[in-house]
Design goal:
By secondary structure, the chain is α/β, with parallel strands linked by helices. The chain has five helices and four strands, in the order ααβαβαββα. It has one domain: Flavodoxin domain (Rossmann fold). Bound molecules: flavin mononucleotide. Flavin mononucleotide binds next to strand 2.
Length: about 130
């Protein structure tokens, strides 16, 4: 899913896209948009994501006004992307893209197209803002 989001974002050819499996809190301040892919475990986001958001808050790193989006695969409840969007919006005052992309276990082609579309929409919104 993350590869498809990145592919969509890159398709405009006008934004620089990084696909990372790990980022630290400090590095988040250097991005215009942060698109997070997270699976749901035990009705929650994985602990690494919690720690990352906690570090951002504790270190006073501002994400205000940055574009945020969340997506992920799940099995039966799929809370993680919604929880992440809420934190982006309510805690960090980011501008979130509300469309949640939730794939049941494995994304099919239509879900992957949705991911590409999300990446494209975010990159276009950044270009329109610039
Ligand atoms: C220990 C465990 C707990 C899980 N808990 C949930 C859950 O609470 N809700 C849910 O929707 N899916 C749950 N799942 C299913 C995963 O979200 C799903 O398999 C997802 O595709 C895993 O993504 P990953 O392979 O990228 O880690 C759980 C899976 C495991 C192994």
């Amino acid at each position: 899913m993350a590869n498809a989001v990145a592919e969509g974002a890159q398709s405009s050819g006008k934004v620089e896209v990084e696909l990372n499996y790990y980022v630290d809190a400090e590095s988040l301040s250097s991005y215009d948009a942060i698109l997070v892919g997270a699976p749901t475990y035990n009705h929650d986001m994985p602990v690494d994501f919690k720690n990352l958001f906690e570090d951002v808050a504790v270190q006073g790193i501002s994400l205000k006004g940055k574009t945020g989006a969340a997506f992920g695969s799940y099995g039966w409840s799929g809370e993680a992307p919604k929880l992440i969007l809420e934190i982006m919006k309510n805690k960090f005052e980011m501008q979130v893209v509300e469309s949640l992309l939730l794939a049941k276990y494995t994304p099919d082609q239509s879900m992957l197209n949705g991911c590409r579309d999300l990446g494209k929409r975010v990159s276009e919104s950044l270009m329109n803002r610039a």
